[in-house]
Structure formats: C-alpha cells, structure tokens
Write a structure and sequence with these properties.
Number of helices of chain A: 5
Distance between the termini of chain B: 25 Å
Largest interface: A-B, 35 and 35 residues
Oligomer: heterodimer
Helix content of chain A: 10-25%
Order of helices and strands of chain A: HEEHEEEEEEEEEEEEEEEHHH
Radius of gyration of chain B: 22 Å
Number of strands of chain A: 17
Largest sheet of chain A: 9 strands, mixed
Strand content of chain A: 35-45%
Number of helices of chain B: 13
Shape of chain B: globular
Strand order of the largest sheet of chain B: 4-3-7-10-13-15-18-21-23-25
Radius of gyration of chain A: 20 Å
Largest sheet of chain B: 10 strands, mixed
Number of strands of chain B: 25
C-alpha cells in the first residue's frame, strides 16, 4: 500500500504545500516558513531501551536513525517492552536549523511495544520527520507522543502505520502547538480483528498552531477504529483537526467512530475541523461527531455554588475536559506522567 | 399506512422515469456555441436595458478566465461549452393575452406532468385545497405565470425575471448578483452571462404571501443548456413559501442545467424554499442525464430574518449543489433540510453552507443521503462563525443510508469557529438498511421493494415533514420510484 503523503522537502521551498492543497487548507506551511532553513545534521533521533523508571525527560546522547530498529528489538525483548524515543531538535539562535529525517520501526508477529516519543526541542528550528511503523500479525504498538515544542518551531511530524490481522495500534498525541505544528498519521487498516485507536489532546495558547491530521484506510473486513480528540484553545491560537475514515469496497463489518471536541476560551481563537467519512462498503457502522463551544457556564456556576473560587473552578473544568484522552492510556506510569504533564501545561489557561 | 400503500401502488405502476417524454414543439434556437455575440443575442431577445447587457458581458469575460471546479467527488465527461444551444424557446404565438392563448401543446405538456396551469383547474379542486401560483419555464423561457393578478392585489410581484427586468428594473438592478456575485464560481459566472429566464418574486413589507408560489422547470429541446435565474426578495416582515420542480426528457446525451438562485430576507422576513429535483438521471448504465450544477444562496440581511431550504434530490446524473445561508442579521435563522437519493450511476455532491456573521444567529442542518446501485452520494457542508458572531448556534445531523454493495456514501463537513460563544454540534452516521427491520417488514407480508420503500420513508421523515403538504406526498412517491430495483 502506498501512502498518500504530500511530498515535502524542507530544503526546497517550492515543495512546500500551500493552502491551495485541500489537505493543507487550514495549515499554511509556506507562510510559516518562507525560506529554506539551514541544513542541520540528520535529526538526532535518540532511542533508549529498557527500563527507564517512570519515564524521565532528558536529551539522550548521540545516535543514528539506523539504530532505531536495534533499539526497538532490545526494548521488545526487555521485561517491560518500553522504548523512550527522544525526538527533540535543538535549533539555532537567530538562524533556523533544518532537520529532516525518516525512520522505520517493525514489530514482528505478537511483539508488544510501548513507545514514548518526546518532541521537546529548543530554540529556532524547522523539522520534518517521517516515521514508518509496520505491525505484523498480533503485534501491539502503544504510541504516546508529547509535542512540547518551542513557540518559534516549525514542525511537520508524519507517520505511516501498516497493520496486520489481529494487531493493535493505539496512539495518544498531546500537543501544545508551535509557530506551525502538524502531526499526521496515515494508517492502512488490515481489518480481521485489527484495532486502531488514534486519540489526542491539545492545549493551545498565544499564537500556537496545531494541526492533527489522521487518515485511516479500511481495506479489509472487520476492522475497528476509534478516535477521541479534545482540546483547549485560548488567545489567538489555532486548532485544526482533519480526520478521514476511508472504507474500501468490500471492507464489510467495519466499525469506525471519530469524535472531536474543542473548547474555545475566548473570541479570536480559531478552531477548524474537517471530520470526513468516505465509504464504499455497505455493511458498516461509521459515525463522527464534532462539537465546538465555550466552557459550560452552568457547570462553572455549580462549582462556584459549592464554594469554589471561579479560577479554581475554571481550572478544574478545563482539566476535566481534556483528561479523558489521557485516562485511556492503560500503562499506569505513562498515564500518570501524561496527567501530570497536562496539569502542568493547563496552568497557563486559568487566568480569566 | 395510506401513504405507504400509495407509494407501493406508484412503484408498481411506474417502471421508469415517468417524465422522460419529448414534446414536439416548434422551437427557436440561438446559434450553437458561446461567445459575446450569443450573450448579446440573448439580451436582445429579451429587450434588456443596456446595464443588463453590460452585466452579462462582464460576467462572460470573467467566466472565460475561470476554471471548472474539480474538487467535488463527482466524475463526468467535461461539458463542451461550444457544443450547446444557449437559447431555445418555443416559437412565440403573436400577442399572448391570457392563458387560453398559450400554445395548447405546451399546456398539454404541463397537464401530462400534472402541473395545473389553468387557474380554474386549480380552483376546481376541493374548496379548502390551498392555491398555488405557478411560473412555468420551458427550456429558456417562462411560458406562463398564473395567479399574477390575484397576487398583485396583495402587492406581491411574481413574474418571470425577463418581465421583471422590463417592469421593475430598479428592483432587479438593486438585488441581482448581490447574493451570488458574478465571480462567485465558474457556473455562477456562466449563468450570469447567459441566463435566459427564471422567476422573480418580491413580497412587500409586512405581507404574508397569500399562496404558495412555485416554478416548474422543464428542459425539452435537445443539446440545450438551461440557465435559469431566480431572485426572491422578502421585504421587512414578509413571508413567502416557494416551491420548485424540475423534469427533463430521457436522452442519451448529457444536458447542462446551471442555475443561480438568490434569496434576500430583510428584517423579520421569512422565506421557505422547497425543491423537488427530478431531472432525468440517465439510464442504468449511466448514459445520458442532466448535469445539475446549481448555485443557491440566501442572504439573511435583516435582524430576525429566516430562510429555510428544503430539498428532495432524486434526479440528475451529476448534482453539484450547496444551498447556503449567509446569516448576516442578528438573531437570523438558517435551515437546511435535505434528502438526496442516488441510484444507478448517479453522483451527487450536495450540502450547504451556514455562514454566521451576526450575533445570536442560529442554523440547523438535517441531511439524509440514500445511495443505492452504483451511485455515489456526498454530503459536503460548511458551518462557520465569524469572530463577531457571538452566541452563534449550529446543529448538524447528516445520516447516510447504503443500499447494496456497490454504492458509496461520503460526508465531508467543514466546521470553522472564531468565537468562543459559538456552539457547534455535528453528528454524522453511515449505516446500511437494517436487515432486522427489513425482515420484520417482509415477515408482515410486504414485498422486498415495499419494505425498502417503507424503511427509507422512515429514514427521511424528519425532512419530509418540512415540505409543504402537496410536495411531501409527491416526494414520498418519488423516493420509492428512485430506489426501485435497488435491492436484490
């Protein structure tokens, strides 16, 4: 299966998609990045395998993309099957450093991997990375992604996922946006009991821009897809969600559900949603829901009537809004880490 | 169950497209092809003022610089715009004073279609039956408009747009192109250049239009395109309900229908616009049929104005149509109720745009798509709230029903919000006809086709309820016919 990724070369501005590309209608890369960045070393994707007790945050030492699969193999064979992948880019000061890289992770039949990808770079950079995941029969990949990039970053993170019968792919993306931040996932759904989940939560303020784009192609029978994306948008930030579920002819028994919910905290923030269903088979259950609204005044009133100061009540309701996404993470340590991260990041949203 | 029984009977009675006949009527054509001279020819034919000709020529020039849109999920053989007649009209009889002088052959056409053009015939029905006035458009021209006099008494202007250009040029000049500008899109520009006829309605302030108004569009001549233009203005506090119906003969060639409809609702005004679109859909192999490329838009200009679009789309080979509302006035309301049924090789890409600009504006979208055969049915919609549209509210529900293994259903919604106090909800589902329900209905003695008709009627009932009564019955029958042969 060939994935339909818009060709993009960071070092060739003529390849930048513009708003004229339907897929990039709400995210204008050529506006965010007018000139090609200075070519930096290959994305220093770092992998560290094994027990990394409680998922600590750090920048790992040197490493090459080529080491990726070796790190994965070590992680899969370790007792907890976890891998921490440091994808942080360190940019230049005054100049924009350009990182571009591609990597591949393969899971053999029945293998189980919990992957934590950390994108928390620093300074000025533009990055374009593509990760390919191939899941064999019965393999499981739990992917938790933290996009905590500097305000000035221009970041396009794309991935392709090929599943096999009985495999499980679960993705949880948590983002704070950047000057331009796009996270794209393309999944080829193998059906036959394979499960795909792609969730996400975004916490955007100031002028942050975050674009979560997902594509799932159901090519075979009896595939299930679940998506829950929730987020907060404040100040002049922009949230984009583009989800597309494509069900090929004959992919009967497909059960696909997609939900996107955005909370707008002030006028002047922007939410753009395009949840698409494209269906060529008849024996399917497909649904999507999309809501955009403000904080529920009656809930706020309820909290206040119980003696809670307004600020605390707001904080509580905002956290309560996005937390359901993180709560679905089964791994306890990882879940706690993400919940703490959300609590930390939502602090900036409390101000009235 | 009476309606169901009727549906079933209709299904049995009618095997294919019932309106596919051709009428042999003397027709006057403009030379084939499209150029500035043809635009001048049409304008001259209609004795239009100079400003109108200038408007058309500017539109033609704009059109030449535009590209045909290709973003819709429809595939069709491109139209050769030079291989069409842009004007075809039944040869006029000298001096037409009353209906009695309308070409009897034309009257026969409408009688066959079941459209009452004679006022006394309308009245001959049950005393309590509601009256409705008809503007009948045959190919490029309006042949007759009924009840004009009676409407005039209450100040309502209902006539063909050509007549309006002669009798009420100021009104036309003020509003034409104010909702759908010439450069809006490829087909709107083409229409602005060559539109030949259509209806014009003006309802003065505070008037509730005393009867339903309707236009019946008929394509008859071969190799012609129909480009009608409709303009409806409801002044302050006015109300009007307008119905539109369309049919065409069965032909192997595709025919183009590119209409523009503009609605203007002033303060407290309300417009209800209903369409039952039954253009010839082509045969089972996808040969022939109408290309229905239509731009319909309403401008809720005044505060508390309301526009409600209801459409039942069963015909056309290819449909490209997005009746929209610009909710400019504070507290204005836009509604869109749609049933789109595709069967055979039909392709429909239809939906709406609700653009919230004013405060506390509300919109509601209910779209029901039914696809069968090898058809493709797409809902495409936009709901947007401007930063100043505080308190905007939208509810969207689009459901798709799939009948059979070879059809397709798509939902492509765009939701854009720039204000925190807007509340947007969107729900969409796609499922197939429930086996259990089908089994239940058949176990009660209904045949498979009858059961499908029953279930589909149930699926779309929320929209059917929005149609004026006479149309609802019509639409229900149409649904059954459109889906005939889709199971098994």
């Amino acid at each position: 299966m060939a994935f339909d990724l818009t060709p993009l070369d960071l070092f060739d501005p003529s390849s930048y998609p513009t708003r004229r590309h339907e897929e990039w209608k709400y995210s204008d890369l050529s506006r965010a990045l007018r000139d090609a960045p200075a070519r930096a070393d290959l994305t220093h994707m770092q992998a560290e395998a094994g027990d990394f007790g409680g998922f600590y945050w750090h920048c790992a030492g040197d490493g090459q993309l080529a080491d990726l699969q070796a790190a994965v193999s070590r992680a899969v064979q370790s007792s907890d099957g976890r891998l921490y992948l440091d994808m942080s880019d360190i940019g230049g000061e005054g100049t924009i450093a350009g990182y571009q890289g591609e990597g591949r992770i393969t899971l053999a039949a029945g293998e189980h991997l919990i992957l934590l990808e950390d994108y928390s770079g620093a300074l000025d950079y533009a990055a374009s990375t593509v990760l390919h995941f191939d899941l064999a029969e019965g393999a499981t990949l739990i992917r938790v992604v933290i996009l905590d990039e500097p305000e000035s970053a221009v970041s396009v993170r794309r991935s392709t996922v090929t599943t096999a019968p009985g495999s499980v792919f679960k993705q949880y993306v948590f983002a704070t946006g950047a000057k331009f931040q796009r996270f794209e996932t393309h999944v080829e759904h193998a059906g036959h009991g394979a499960q795909v989940e792609m969730h996400g939560a975004y916490l955007l303020k100031d002028t942050a821009h975050f674009d979560y784009t997902t594509r799932v192609n159901h090519a075979e029978v009896d595939g299930a897809t679940q998506q829950l994306i929730k987020g907060l948008v404040k100040d002049r930030a922009t949230a984009v969600f583009q989800g597309r579920i494509y069900v090929e002819k004959g992919a009967d028994g497909t059960d696909a559900r997609m939900r996107h919910q955005a909370l707008m905290l002030n006028d002047g923030a922007h939410v753009r949603a395009k949840p698409e269903l494209e269906i060529y088979a008849d024996d399917v259950q497909c649904a999507h829901g999309n809501t955009i609204g403000a904080l529920d005044e009656s809930a706020l009133f309820f909290c206040q009537s119980r003696g809670m100061p307004e600020e605390v009540a707001r904080a509580l309701l905002m956290q309560a809004f996005v937390v359901p996404v993180a709560e679905q993470i089964e791994d306890e340590a990882l879940r706690e880490m993400v919940l703490n991260w959300i609590a930390d990041k939502t602090e900036g949203f409390y101000a009235l | 169950m009476a309606a169901v029984k009727e549906t079933i009977e209709t299904v049995q009675k009618l095997e294919t497209y019932a309106h596919g006949f051709v009428t042999d009527i003397e027709t006057e054509y403009a030379p084939k092809g499209l150029n500035a001279d043809i635009v001048r020819f049409i304008s001259a034919k209609k004795n239009e003022p100079q400003w109108m000709l200038d408007y058309r020529l500017a539109a033609f020039e704009r059109w030449q610089s535009m590209d045909e849109p290709d973003w819709a999920k429809v595939h069709y053989q491109k139209v050769d715009y030079q291989d069409l007649y842009y004007y075809a009209a039944p040869k006029p009889k000298p001096k037409l004073n009353s209906l009695d002088e309308v070409d009897p052959e034309l009257l026969a056409v409408y009688a066959k279609l079941g459209i009452p053009l004679k006022e006394q015939e309308v009245l001959a029905g049950v005393a309590s039956a509601p009256k409705y006035a008809v503007d009948a458009v045959f190919d490029s021209v309006s042949v007759v408009t009924t009840f004009k006099e009676e409407l005039k008494k209450s100040g309502v202007i209902f006539c063909s747009i050509s007549e309006a250009l002669r009798e009420h040029p100021q009104l036309v000049k003020e509003y034409l192109g104010s909702v759908v500008p010439v450069s809006d899109n490829y087909f709107a520009a083409l229409n602005a250049a060559v539109f030949s006829d259509g209806s014009f309605v003006y309802v003065p302030p505070g008037v509730r239009c005393p009867m339903e108004l309707s236009t019946y569009f008929r394509i008859n001549a071969e190799n012609t395109g129909q480009f009608e233009r409709t303009l409806i203005i409801a002044d302050k506090g006015a109300y009007v309900s307008y119905l539109e119906g369309c049919t065409a003969p069965m032909r192997d060639e595709n025919q183009l229908h590119a209409a523009v409809v503009e609605l203007v609702a002033m303060e407290d005004a309300s417009i209800k616009y209903s369409t039952v679109q039954n253009w010839y859909p082509g045969d089972a192999e996808g040969k022939g049929g109408i290309y229905n490329f239509v731009t319909k838009r309403a401008d809720c200009r005044g505060a508390r104005s309301k526009v409600s679009w209801t459409q039942v789309e069963t015909g056309s080979a290819v449909t490209w149509k997005y009746p929209s509302c610009i909710l400019r006035g504070d507290d204005s309301v836009g509604e869109f109720y749609s049933i789109a049924v595709t069967n055979g090789m039909q392709q429909a890409d239809t939906g709406t745009k609700m653009i919230h600009l004013g405060k506390n504006t509300r919109s509601r979208i209910i779209s029901k798509g039914v696809s069968a055969g090898k058809s493709s049915n797409t809902y495409r919609g936009l709901v947007s709230a401007h930063a100043k549209a505080g308190g905007a509210r939208n509810f969207t529900q689009c459901d798709s029903l799939l009948i059979g293994k070879t059809c397709a259903a798509h939902t492509v919604p765009y939701v854009e919000s720039d204000t925190a106090s807007a509340q947007f909800e969107h729900e969409a589902t796609t499922t197939r006809l429930s086996e259990d329900q089908l089994f239940y209905a058949m176990q009660r003695g209904l045949s498979q086709e009858e059961a499908v008709a029953l279930l589909v009627n149930g699926f779309v009932r929320e929209v059917l309820q929005e149609l004026p009564m006479e149309f609802a019955v019509e639409a229900q029958k149409l649904l059954a016919i459109s889906l005939e042969g889709s199971v098994g």
